[in-house]
From TrEMBL:
UniProt KW keywords: Heme biosynthesis, Lyase, Magnesium, Metal-binding, Porphyrin biosynthesis, Zinc
Reactions it catalyzes: 2 5-aminolevulinate = porphobilinogen + 2 H2O + H(+)
Residue sites binding Zn(2+) per the record: 120, 122, 130
Organism for this UniProt entry: Desulfallas thermosapovorans DSM 6562
Protein name: Delta-aminolevulinic acid dehydratase
Length: 326
């Protein structure tokens, strides 16, 4: 059917008409809000490259979570910044580590809030890599035991969801088996199944103090030109026991999100990463773009591509904007 019988503008004639026929909707329930946790008390340290983002001590985090709860954001993702680091990242699996203490405090005050813990060693190792290093090489299999120990310690502290981000081969299986052995068969795994060696992580590495001290992470994170590889990674992680999968970054990888959605039925998360967040913030501060409209357009695009869940530092602002438009 063609013009003049077909007139697509009929369905764009007013705001309510557009709302009525809208195909994709961004909701509060879609959002996960990441936090960076550090030691000490009364700490709220701004991350210079991420306006509006802070490193919080646990006591200050609990204050922030009152707002998170009031906004209706269903869950948070935690990254720990320990006071000291070593070659094997022992702070990651310490029962009294920064994340373990934070999770216990959060679940005591906000038992209904979903607490997702990032499982990786990079924030805890003095070399900044995501696994054990020997003679300049990141060792895969010896790292799996430490990742599994970390996951179990998080579950013991009360974490609701375990999110391994290291990109070691076989880590989902190792973590699933360890959780099951320790009585945590009901704790789901949200795996960073598709994590590219991306230039968009720069601000995060400042926030988490996790930049590698030598080389890069290209031997374990994925090569950005590859799409078919992403589908293999997702299939392997689901086979090993992943309940949900993540594609990271999001903005430059909407085709990957769409391909994963087309090929797999389980819950799919898109991580709207630090560099994507900071670009919008920087351009908005200079008056070059409208922050609200640009952010909402981007995150709605992630939904349209197929994401069920969006991990984003924009989460509180998005909720406020959604309520204003309500």
């Amino acid at each position: 059917m063609y013009y003049p019988v077909a007139r697509p503008r009929r369905l764009r004639s007013s705001a309510n008409m557009r709302r009525l026929v809208r195909e994709n909707h961004l909701r509060v329930d879609d959002l996960i809000y990441p936090f960076f946790i550090t030691g000490g008390r009364d700490v709220q340290q701004p991350v210079e490259s991420m306006p509006g983002v802070y490193r919080f001590s646990t006591d200050r985090l609990l204050i922030q979570l009152k707002e998170v709860q009031s906004l209706g954001i269903p869950g948070i993702l935690l990254f720990g910044i320990p006071d000291s680091k070593d070659a094997v990242g022992s702070g990651a699996y310490d029962a009294n580590g920064i994340i373990q203490q934070a999770v216990r405090a959060i679940k005591d005050k906000f038992p209904e809030l979903l607490v997702i813990t990032d499982v990786c060693l990079c924030e805890y190792t003095d070399h900044g890599h995501c696994g054990i290093v020997h003679e300049g090489k990141v060792l895969n299999d010896p790292t799996l035991e430490l990742l599994a120990r970390t996951a179990v310690s998080h579950a013991q502290s009360g974490a609701d969801i375990i999110a391994p981000s290291d990109m070691m081969d076989g880590r989902v299986r190792a973590i699933r088996e360890a959780l099951d052995e320790h009585g945590y068969a009901d704790v789901p795994i949200m795996s960073y199944s598709v994590k590219y060696a991306s230039a968009f992580y720069g601000p995060f590495r400042e926030a988490a103090d996790s930049a590698p001290q030598f080389g890069d992470r290209k031997t374990y994170q994925m090569d950005p030109p590859n799409l078919r590889e992403a589908l293999r990674e997702v299939e392997q992680d689901i086979t090993e026991g992943a309940d949900m999968v993540i594609v990271k970054p999001a903005m430059a990888y909407m085709d990957v999100i769409a391909a994963v959605r087309e090929n797999f039925d389980g819950p799919l998360a898109a991580y709207n990463v630090s560099g994507e967040y900071s670009m919008i913030k920087a351009a908005a501060r200079l008056g070059w773009i409208d922050e609200q409209k640009t952010t909402m357009e981007l995150l709605t695009g992630l939904k349209r591509a197929g994401a069920d869940i969006i991990i984003t530092y924009h989460a509180p602002d998005v909720v406020r904007w959604l309520k204003e438009d309500g």
